[in-house]
């Protein structure tokens, strides 16, 4: 059904072969609209992430002020027409800092979930396929990694590696690896014993070919779903790292860093400094959760929800 | 059941060993800086030979395997070394801070379970009603909000509306339980919010399924009161997956705990682990990280055993996942 929704107008599939010819005549825009109507929450998530993407890419053109240079005459300004979301202790514009902060959050979210899921999938599929003692050892290592609270592992890694954007991405990929590996392994175990794998082995496929051509594509749906889920989680954890001082450092603008400092003292002076970046994180995580749910529903309706 | 327990304990032990190895490997990349930090070098006052001396004293010039054996041997008798930062034995530092953390965890869990489960049950019973919709929306946001932001918002609210100020001294539970509970309530709420949302959603979706079962219809047909049907026949059968979920979320709970303690400046384990790691206080960091990870492993183990206890079927199919 999903293939049909992505059909190009006038695509080669002949109407005679298709059970529902009217579906093929649908334009791309129409099928997109159909998808949006069927998954309105997922579409909302996609739009939010898209807006964030645009903000991140076009930050220098969109942001009204320089994110690192403040106006000494405009400290702790409440939201106004000049400063839409107010200013911080250095007179820096909150909105501009949030727009630039989207770059870091997005880079970390995409980077860590991608690296984590790719490595985790490689480990999980390999271990599940090979089985035996290699699988047992891999499982115990993954179990041990799972014992660390995500934030703790990332913080230790970030401190060891030094806090640059690249290292924060690597540090946050670490805790994702065992979680992705677990899911990839579980799917591999099921697939390994299925008839079509047996068939490909019977016609003489090599192990590598079976893994790459038959197992990997079939683990794609669950992996894509957790990649979206961890996109949001990585963004939260990155903000937490920054907040604790183990991540991105001043004067760079990141959402977590913007909230750092004493909330008690800020509360009476400038609550907006804390409220808006947090709202942004909330929105993005919500968006990635909703998008993940929608992707899961579209790709594989039978797939069990891992986030209730 | 006995075999099952033994098998689980053995796996748990192997996992703990793996945890120790990882902790050691990660933390030992720091030491070059540990000697520098301890001597306050970097300004040219401390010579390279003096640094060497410090490293020798700390045993950092030994091969890694020797260092690991040395450390593991001491950990086995609960000697975690001396903190480079506070100068106290790490185990003493941890023992002093542990009660606060334990109390927050327990309170957060209580808040989450005692609000989340009933909310989920009612939401499932009245699925589609406006109360259910509100709950669904609130919990979706609860899952998305970072716990430290919730903590910050709680502080903002308390300060703005109640002229609250962060306690300078956090009362230990055994000195004055009531005051301690009231002080730690807000951090616990911030930590438990995510769990609360998760448990409420999970309970709702499981209860939804359970309430559609034949035996529920039978129970209703027998003329049992609605409350009895929902709570006795429904909830009891939904408990198992909920318990599993709580187990899975155990590690995540500690993540939220670490940062919430930092937000509220509670002198618990979370604050200790952050300070130790950031200051490259490797004996303390190694010790506390090991202990936190062990708590997670033991917690999962306890949940596993509880699962076996709650569901007789789990005892038979005991293949480790």
Molecular structure report:
The complex is a heterodimer of chains A (308) and B (321). Chain A has 308 residues and is mainly α. Chain A has helices at 2-5, 21-24, 28-38, 40-57, 59-62, 94-130, 132-146, 150-161, 165-173, 176-192, 195-202, 207-244, 255-259, 263-269, 272-299. In chain A, α4 crosses α6 and α7 (132-146) runs antiparallel to α10 (176-192). The radius of gyration of chain A is 23 Å and the shape is globular. Residues 1-16 and 303-308 of chain A have low confidence and may be disordered. With 321 residues, chain B is mostly helical. Chain B is globular, with a radius of gyration of 24 Å. Chains A and B meet through α7, α8, α12, α14 and α15 of A and α1, α6, α7, α8 and α11 of B.
Kindly list the characteristics that best describe this protein.
heterodimer, A: about 300 residues, mainly alpha, about 70% helix, about 0% strand, disordered N terminus
Number of strands of chain B: 0
What's the overall average pLDDT of chain B, rounded? Answer: 80
The N- to C-terminal Cα distance of chain B equals 17 Å
List the total number of helices of chain B.
Answer: 14
Short description:
Chain A is mostly helical and 308 residues long. Chain A has 15 helices and no strands. In chain A, helix 6 (94-130) crosses helix 9 (165-173) and helix 7 (132-146) runs antiparallel to helix 10.
Layout of secondary structure:
The complex is a heterodimer of chains A (308) and B (321).
Chain A: H1 2-5, H2 21-24, H3 28-38, H4 40-57, H5 59-62, H6 94-130, H7 132-146, H8 150-161, H9 165-173, H10 176-192, H11 195-202, H12 207-244, H13 255-259, H14 263-269, H15 272-299
Helix pairs in contact in A: 3-4, 4-6, 4-15, 6-7, 6-9, 6-10, 6-12, 7-10, 8-9, 9-12, 10-12, 12-15
Chain B: H1 2-27, H2 31-39, H3 48-58, H4 64-76, H5 90-125, H6 130-144, H7 147-162, H8 177-210, H9 214-221, H10 226-248, H11 250-264, H12 269-278, H13 282-310, H14 312-316
Helix pairs in contact in B: 1-13, 2-3, 5-6, 5-8, 6-8, 7-8, 7-11, 8-10, 8-11, 9-10, 10-13, 11-12, 12-13
């Amino acid at each position: 059904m999903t293939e049909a929704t992505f059909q190009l107008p006038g695509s080669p599939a002949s109407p005679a072969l298709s059970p529902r010819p009217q579906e093929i005549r649908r334009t791309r825009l129409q099928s997109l609209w159909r998808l949006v109507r069927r998954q309105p929450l997922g579409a909302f998530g996609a739009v939010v992430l898209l807006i964030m993407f645009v903000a991140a890419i076009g930050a220098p053109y969109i942001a009204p002020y320089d994110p690192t240079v403040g106006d000494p005459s405009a400290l702790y300004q409440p939201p106004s027409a000049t400063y839409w979301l107010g200013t911080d202790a250095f007179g820096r514009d909150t909105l501009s800092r949030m727009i630039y902060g989207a770059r870091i959050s997005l880079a970390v979210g995409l980077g860590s979930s991608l690296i984590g899921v790719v490595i985790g999938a490689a480990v999980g599929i390999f271990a599940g396929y090979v089985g035996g003692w290699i699988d047992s050892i891999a499982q115990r290592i993954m179990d041990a990694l799972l014992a660390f609270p995500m934030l703790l592992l990332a913080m230790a890694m970030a401190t060891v590696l030094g806090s640059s954007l690249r290292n924060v991405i690597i540090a946050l990929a670490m805790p994702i690896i065992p979680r992705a590996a677990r899911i990839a392994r579980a799917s591999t175990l099921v697939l390994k014993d299925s008839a079509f794998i047996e068939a490909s082995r019977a016609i003489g496929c090599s192990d590598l070919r079976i893994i790459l051509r038959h197992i990997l594509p079939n683990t794609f749906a669950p992996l894509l779903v957790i990649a979206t889920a961890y996109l949001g989680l990585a963004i939260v954890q990155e903000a937490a790292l920054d907040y604790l001082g183990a991540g991105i450092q001043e004067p760079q603008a990141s959402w977590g860093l913007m909230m750092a400092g004493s909330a008690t003292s800020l509360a009476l002076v400038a609550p907006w400094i804390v409220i808006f970046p947090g709202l942004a994180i909330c929105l993005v995580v919500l968006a990635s959760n909703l998008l993940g749910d929608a992707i899961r529903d579209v790709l594989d309706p039978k797939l069990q929800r891992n986030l209730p | 059941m006995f075999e099952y327990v033994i098998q689980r304990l053995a796996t748990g032990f192997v996992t703990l060993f793996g945890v120790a190895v990882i902790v050691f490997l990660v933390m030992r990349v720091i030491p070059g800086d540990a000697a520098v930090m301890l001597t306050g070098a970097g300004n040219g006052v401390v010579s390279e030979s003096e640094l060497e001396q410090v490293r020798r004293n700390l045993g950092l010039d030994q091969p890694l395997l020797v260092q690991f054996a040395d450390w593991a041997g001491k950990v086995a008798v609960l000697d975690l070394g001396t903190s480079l930062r506070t100068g106290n034995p790490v185990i003493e530092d941890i023992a002093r801070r542990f009660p606060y953390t334990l109390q927050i965890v327990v309170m957060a869990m209580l808040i989450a379970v005692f609000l989340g489960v009933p909310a989920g049950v009612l939401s499932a019973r009245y699925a589609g009603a406006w109360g259910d919709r509100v709950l669904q929306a609130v919990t979706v946001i609860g899952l998305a909000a970072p716990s430290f932001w919730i903590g910050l918002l709680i502080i903002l609210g308390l300060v703005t509306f109640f002229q609250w100020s962060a306690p300078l001294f956090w009362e230990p539970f055994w000195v004055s339980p009531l005051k301690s509970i009231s002080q730690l309530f807000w951090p616990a709420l911030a930590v438990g919010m995510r769990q609360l949302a998760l448990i409420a959603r999970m309970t709702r979706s499981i209860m939804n399924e359970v309430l559609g079962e034949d035996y529920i219809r039978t129970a209703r047909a027998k003329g049992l009161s609605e409350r009895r049907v929902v709570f006795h026949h429904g909830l009891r059968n939904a408990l198992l997956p909920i318990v599993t979920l709580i187990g899975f979320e155990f590690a995540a709970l500690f993540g939220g705990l670490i940062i919430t303690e930092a937000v509220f400046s509670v002198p618990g384990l979370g604050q200790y682990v952050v300070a130790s790691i950031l200051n490259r206080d490797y004996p303390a960091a190694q010790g506390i990280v090991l202990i936190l990870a062990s708590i997670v492993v033991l917690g999962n183990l306890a949940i596993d055993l509880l699962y076996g206890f709650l569901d007789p079927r789990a005892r038979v199919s005991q293949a480790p996942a």
